[in-house]
Amino acid sequence: MSATNPSTVSEASPRILSRELVLLLCVLALLVLLALTALFSRLYHKKIHTLADAMFAQGEADAQAGRVNAALTEYRNALAYNPTNPLFQFHLAKTLVAAGRGEEARSYLLNLLSESPGSGEVNLELARIAKTENSMADAMRYYQGAIYGEWASDPIAMRWQVRRELCDFLLSRGAVKQAAPEVIALQENTPAGDSGRLKIVAQLLLRTQQWNRALDVCRTLLAADRNDQECLAGSAQAAFQLAQYITAMEYFDQLPRERREQPDLVNLFIMAGRILWVDPFLSGLSTEVRAQRAAKALAMAQTRAEACARQTGQSLEQTPPRTDLQRVYQQGKDLQQDWTPRYLQRFPDRLDAAMAYVFGVENAAAAACGEPQGDDHALWLLGRSRSVVNQ
Question: Which distant-in-sequence residues (6+ apart) come within 8 Å of 360 by Cβ?
């Protein structure tokens, strides 16, 4: 058995140690390089994000200052450095919508909506695009999505504003019936003490012809400020449409003359005055005045019937009567000679029958010849209001 050479072992050991040391150093160097790469990568991305944030901030400043094109440029530059940032995408899309470039904005918004289908902000911008394109169905869908969607801050206020925008949109398209329930929902979500929003609601109720609700809201506002001219005007308009002509005139009388003469009120004011002038049923009138008014109304109805008959080429003496106008006229013909001021003053209980004849003639003439004018129109409106009261 041969003995190991000590000198051979001593020479191999340093060689092995040297190789292990080199490997260890290589590993350490690699780790250092990886750490430096990660560090430089983080610094690079931090720098990129810092630049993107700065560009976005400049875009915000430009947008607020009304520099739309500059804002769009800054938003696009920010997205070039940070293309997946949803905030940058949304603000670029929102500015595109404001600039009337909805088609460009749509792709960004639909992508954002696919990621956050409940976003109130995204749905609102898509609704505005649909509105400009006159797409009623899409606008309604996205507006509803915005109303019931999620909002980052003050969701109650934002939903109120969106619903108001929806109401204005529908009314601008003449969709009064569709707007009416939205206006009611807006009213129900308006705090009782918020006079600013209640005034908006009152105007929307008037525009959707919801007269009772409009009058109630206007009266609430007048309880806080009885001199509010728009509330007085709204109350007068609503009361007139509800055939509450005395109430309407009371509100008209509280308005300055120049406000009553504005185009939205002047015809209603004049007609309310005419209706009260011809109405024989007003409380406080003497028997003599009631009889005089009824007799005058009978004479007007007679003239109206004759004019309408000439216009339509029919004879009021036709036997048997064939038209509503002929029938109504002949039903009261035998009684007309008794409906004199003296007769009606002596027998005031006959006034109701006389005026029923007047209203019947006015209704038949309106159906055959169109709505009357002047005092005949006043009588026609008075008759309609009496039929509502007596139902």
Answer: 328, 331, 332
**Span 207-219, pLDDT tens digits:** 999 999 999 999 9
273 band by pLDDT with thresholds 50, 70 and 90: very high
Q: Which of 42, 62, 377 is nearest to 240 (CA)?
A: 377
Q: How far apart are CA 175 and CA 169, in angstroms?
A: 9
> pTM, whole model, 2 decimals?
0.80
Cβ atoms 357, 343 nearer than 8 A: no
Token pair of 373 as six digits: 């004018």
State pLDDT tens for residues 159-187.
999 999 999 999 999 999 999 999 999 99
**Amino acid at site 56:** F
C-alpha 15/C-alpha 8 separation (Å) is 11
CA end-to-end distance (rounded Å), the chain:
135
Which H helix or E strand runs over 39? helix 6-64
Query: Are the C-beta atoms of 201 and 186 separated by less than 8 Å?
Result: yes
Whether residue 123 contacts residue 113, with contact meaning beta carbons closer than 8 Å, is answered with yes
Q: Is the pLDDT of residue 1 over 50?
A: no
Distance (Å, whole) CA 217 – CA 201: 8
Under 8 Å between Cβ of 68 and 95: yes
Mean per-residue pLDDT, 7-33: 66
